[in-house]
Amino acid sequence: MDTPTIRDVAKKAGVGIGTVSRVLNNSPKVAEKTRQIVQDAINELGFRPNSLARQLPRKTRLRNIGVITQPFIAYQAFAERMRGIQLALYELESQCEMVLYNVRSLEHFDEQLSIILQTATVEGLIVIDLDLSDEQITLLRTSNMPFVGINHFRQRDWPCIGADNVEGGRIAARYLIELGHRQIGYVGDTFKDDFGFQTSAERLKGFREVLDQAHLPLPPEYVRLGVHDYAVAKTLASELLTLPNPPTAIFAMCDLQAFACLDAAREAGLRIPDDLSVIGFDDLEMSHHVGLTTVRQHFERSGQMALRHLLALMHDDPPPPTPQLPALEVVERHTTRRLAD
Amino acid sequence: MDTPTIRDVAKKAGVGIGTVSRVLNNSPKVAEKTRQIVQDAINELGFRPNSLARQLPRKTRLRNIGVITQPFIAYQAFAERMRGIQLALYELESQCEMVLYNVRSLEHFDEQLSIILQTATVEGLIVIDLDLSDEQITLLRTSNMPFVGINHFRQRDWPCIGADNVEGGRIAARYLIELGHRQIGYVGDTFKDDFGFQTSAERLKGFREVLDQAHLPLPPEYVRLGVHDYAVAKTLASELLTLPNPPTAIFAMCDLQAFACLDAAREAGLRIPDDLSVIGFDDLEMSHHVGLTTVRQHFERSGQMALRHLLALMHDDPPPPTPQLPALEVVERHTTRRLAD
DNA sequence: TATTCTGATGGAAGCGATTCCATTGTCTGC
DNA sequence: GCAGACAATGGAATCGCTTCCATCAGAATA
Question: Do A100 and B98 touch (CB under 8 A)?
C-alpha cells in the first residue's frame, strides 16, 4: 500500500481527520481515550505526517535557506562559517532552516544549481568559495532567487562578503617591508583552481603591488605556485630556500601553507624567525598554538553577515548595501622578526 | 499586498494558471510569445513559487534528512562527517536534501528536537556528538522518526556509528606497553562535558583496563583531566612532566591535546620521542604533517555509513543491523619510540 | 468546403495536511 | 425538567501548486 495519510489513520481509528490532526499537534482538546486510540492507529500504520502538506496551510511557515559550497576542504573555514550562519539564524529568530549542498566540480555546481532553482526548496542561497558564471547569475536573477556570496572580491554586481584578498596581500607585504625585509618570496595556489577560484591570484596581486611601490624586486623565481596541498607547499618552500639568493621572508597564501614553509625551513636547518620570517593568512586555531604570524580573517563573522544580508535581501524591497567585514589585520606572533640593518 | 500566487500572475498576464505553471516548469508546450508575457508578469510581481505547494502534488518528492550537532568545535571531524553524509547522499541518488541544525547546550538541544519533531520538515535524523536522554528517545520513537547517532558507544538500543572509544583506549595502551613503556600518563577531557558526552571517560576506561591486566600502575596523579582546550591540555601535560616520577609516555585523548603535550614537552626541554612518547587519537590532517603517532578513526566513513543506515531505516521494514566501522588502528609516526630495556 | 490533426491553452481535481465552524452529547444551575 | 455552557468531535474549505483532460483555433489533408 501507499504511505498512509491522515485519512487512513482517521478511518482506522474510527474518528474524523480533525481529531487525528489534533492528536498530531498535541492539542489539549482531545479526550485521553481518543488520543490513545488514534496514537495506536498511527503506530500500527507507521504513519508519519507529510511535512510539506503540514506546512502548507499554516499561516507562519518555515523557510529554507540554502548554503552551497566546495567539499569542505578547508575544515576550519567551513566550520566557522557554518557556525556564523547558524548563529545569525538563531539570533534573528528567523523561521528558517538551513539546507546544505556541496559540489564536486564546476559541472556539478551547474547541475546542482539548476536543481535548486527548479525545485526551489530554498528561498535564498549563500554561495561559498564558488565563482558564479554570468549565465548562472542571470539564471538566479530570472528565478528571483536572492543570493549572496562568501569569499569573492571580484568587481561583480552581486553581493559578496569576504576578506578583501588583494588588500590582504598588501597588508602582508607592508608588514614585512616595515620589518626591514627586502627579499620576500610568495608561496600559494595556482591561479585558477578547479572551482574557478582566484584567492591566490588576488593575494599575490596586492602583495606585488606594494612591493612595486616600494621599488622592491619580485623575481619570478620568488613566486612559487602549486596545487593547494601541504606537501606541495613544502616542496615549493624548499625550492625557495635553496635558491642561490634565498628570500629572508615568505608570505604564504594561507596558514596551512605557512606551516609547510616552517616545516621546510626546519628541515633546511633554518631557525625561525632568526634565519627566516614567515607570515600566513587566515589565522587558524593551530596558528595560535604554533605561534604563527598571520593575517587574520573572520570566518564566523562572514557567515553571520552573509546570512543577515541574505535575509535582508529576502525581506526588504530596496536591496540594502552589501555590508563590509572588519578590516584585515596582522596578528604578530613568533615566526617573523625585524631585520637588523 | 500578500505575496503573489500563481493565480495573481495568471490574472496579470491574462492567461490560465496552467500556462503559468508550464512556464515555471520550462514546459515546451508554451508559445514563445505567451512565455514572454508570463515571464514579464512574474518579474513585475516579484513572484516566487512556493516550494511547499510545488512539491506537494508531485509524485516524486524531495525528502529532507536532518543532521543535528554541537557547534562545530572539532573542525575536521565536523567537516569530514558532513562530507561523508553528502557523499552517500549523492552516491545513493536519494532524492534527499540535508538540513543542518546545531545546538548550543543540552536545553537548546531539547528545544530544537521538539521543534524538529513538531514541524517534521525532516524525515530522518542523524545525531552527532550528542547524547539522547531516554525521554528524547521515547519522543523520537513515538513520532516514528528514524534516527542514527554518530560517535556514541553506550550500550543503548539505538543505532550508533562511531569509533569504539573503549577499544580505542585499549589499543593505545597495548601499543605503548608493547613499546616497553611502564609509566604511562593520560591527558583528556573531564568526564561529562556540556553535552553529556563521555568520550574521554570511555577511552580512559579501555586504557585503564589494559594497564590493569598488565599489572601496571595508573596512579591518580597520572590521570589529568580538564576542559577540552589546547592551553588547558598543555598545562595538564606540564603538570604530568614535572611530577617527581614523570611518565615515559602520554596517551592524549585527542590529537589536539597531543599537540599540546608535544608543546609542553618542548617547553620542558624534553626531546620527542627520545625523552617522551606521545600518542593521540583521531588522526587529523595536521597529525600527518606533524608526524604524530595516533589512533586513526574514520570520520568521513562514519558520516557515510550513518546516512546509508538512516536511509535503510527509512525504507526497510525490518530494521537492518547497525553497521560497524572498520577497526581502529595505530598510525605509527615519529612521536613514539621503543624503550630500551 | 468538410474533416482531421495538432499545438496551445484554461481550469477542475487533487496533493495531505490545518483550521474553523457546526454539531453532538454532558453537565451545570435553577 | 430545561436552557445554557462547555468539551469533544466531524468534516468542508483551504493552502498554492501540478497535472490532466477538455476545448479551441488554425493548419493540413482530402
Answer: yes
Is the minimum distance from the CB of B12 to strand D below 7 Å? no
> A63-162+300-315 has which fold?
Rossmann fold (3.40.50)
Alpha-helical (H) ranges within A102-243 are 106-119, 134-142, 165-178, 199-213, 230-241
B214 CB within 8 Å of a chain A CB: no
**∠ CA(B39), CA(B45), CA(B48), 5° rounding?**
75
Instruction: Tell me the per-residue pLDDT of B171-209, one tens digit each, with 9 for 90 and over.
Output: 999 999 999 999 999 999 987 766 767 789 999 999 999
**Residue B121 contacts residue B113 (beta carbons within 8 Å):** no
* Fold adopted by A165-297: Rossmann fold (3.40.50)
- Please give the interface size between A and B, counted as residue pairs whose CB atoms are below 8 Å apart: 135
How long is the CA B31 to C1' D27 vector, in angstroms? 16
Within 7 A of a protein CB, which nucleotides of strand D? 7-21
Please report, rounded to whole angstroms, the spatial distance between the CA atom of protein residue A24 and the C1' atom of nucleotide C22: 22
The closest of B94, B2, B97, B106 to B45, measured between CA atoms, is B2
Instruction: Supply the CATH classification number for the domain B6-55.
Output: 1.10.260.40
C16: residue with closest CA to C1':
A53
Pick the range with the lowest mean pLDDT from A36-40, B70-74, B233-237.
B70-74
**Cell digits of residue B299:** 570520520
Domain regions of chain B by residue span: 6-55, 63-162+300-315, 165-297
